[in-house]
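User: I'm writing a tutorial on reading structure tokens. Could you give me a worked example: one chain, its sequence, then its tokens, then a sentence or two explaining what the tokens reveal?
Assistant: Sure. Here is the example chain.
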Amino acid sequence: MMQHIFILNPTAGSGKAKSLKKDIENYCNQNNINYKLIITTHVNHASEIAKKYSIKDNVCLYSIGGDGTAYEILNGINDKVPLSVIPAGTGNDFFKMISNNNEDILKILIDSINGRNVNVDYGVANNKRFLNSTTLGLDAKVNHIACSILKNKIIPKNLIYKVASVMGILRPKAFKLKIELDDKIIEQESMLVAVMNGKYYGNGVNPIEDVSIQDGCFDIIVVDKIPLLKLPILLPKYLKGDTKDIEEMKIYKSKKVSIYTDELIYAQSDGENFKSKHIVFDIMENALTLRVPNYSKLNGSTN
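And here are its predicted structure tokens:
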């Protein structure tokens, strides 16, 4: 019998994940489900837990939290061990690639327990895995600012990203880069680069529509250097996904991506911040076994 391992981040979603604890226990006990519920206690604890299980253990790991919790588990999970992502965080960007249904979280959890397995892609950036995206430049700087504001609890959470965006616009900086793709090399000045596996990042930012986590390639967004006076107009449009008329934005597809910059640049992978001058990307095609509800829009089944 498969064992269901629930990895719960108690701080995710301002307590939303923590509120599921009793519901998980009650449902599993009432339905004779073999399970283990583990509460994370420190940074990277979810990764440490995930590393303990292999395909031989006949388990499914459940990420009960937000995109950060899923990111940690992804960076610890072993080959072919199924992962189920339950949207109990704030942004829940990756779950939007699984389903657009807006049922309550407990129903999503139950439907996932009784769901199916599919194979999906994930990205690797400098040996760190990611589900949604890795971005460089202006919006990554905004994420750094937002995390700093959140840490210091200066303003309400619902205003953090808006305030951070304004602060980023006030001190914009273009950077010189070289991007090596499968079939071309790009050299230019840029304000922003996003290497997308999923369609969403940054709590719902959706700059392009035609994105799949089952197509075996990245979608790469490159935004040219933008005049300062246009930036306050174009950045909000980009963050809202209203990008059709942004002539400074170009989109490419590639399985491999290498990005070189002339200085350390703000970057983020699935909300995890870092700085770098050189990032090497690889797409891991169909490499993640994902447990999803039967109504998920994703294709295939490995059951």
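What the tokens reveal: The first helix runs from residue 21 to 30. The chain has eight helices and 13 strands.
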